[in-house]
Amino acid sequence: MKKLLYILVLGVVLFGCSKSDKTEEENSITGNWKAEALIGSDGANRYVTPIENGQTIIFKNDDTFEVLDSSIECASGTYAITEDSSQNFNMDIISLVCDNGNLIQYAFTFEEGKLLLSFIVADGSTGCDEICAERYVKLPE
Q1: Alpha-carbon 8 to chain mean position
Q2: How far is CA 41 from the centre of its chain?
Q3: What is the mean pLDDT of each run of 10 residues along the chain (141 residues)?
Q4: pTM of the model
Q5: Helix, strand or coil for residue 114?
Q6: Measuring CA to CA, which residue among 51, 57, 140, 138 is closest to residue 96?
């Protein structure tokens, strides 16, 4: 009877952890992300505009990043994440400190395994009444 109980408890622990680990992995910013669309809303409708040849952002495990195929002057640097910004639709904040000294901040969240980045303007908001973001798809490594 004890063996059966141990096996049952072990099975619950193993299966419970694996689902949570998979969700954390799917919602991890670490990896290679390619811009695929612009997301906007007028309050009643949501608009999705595809991006052709969007930039790729690589967020590495060592808290560094690299931007490929971009027109911005921030090609690499370090990043830090701050959780729960109530000013930006309760999205977390990612701060990019560029090698050239510039600071760029985005509110971010995950939606169906895709990364949404909303640029933060000087007043600390995204500058949108509703969502406005770039949507990124995670590339295989």
Answers
A1: 36
A2: 19
A3: 38 42 65 96 89 95 93 88 66 92 92 93 75 92 78
A4: 0.75
A5: strand
A6: 57
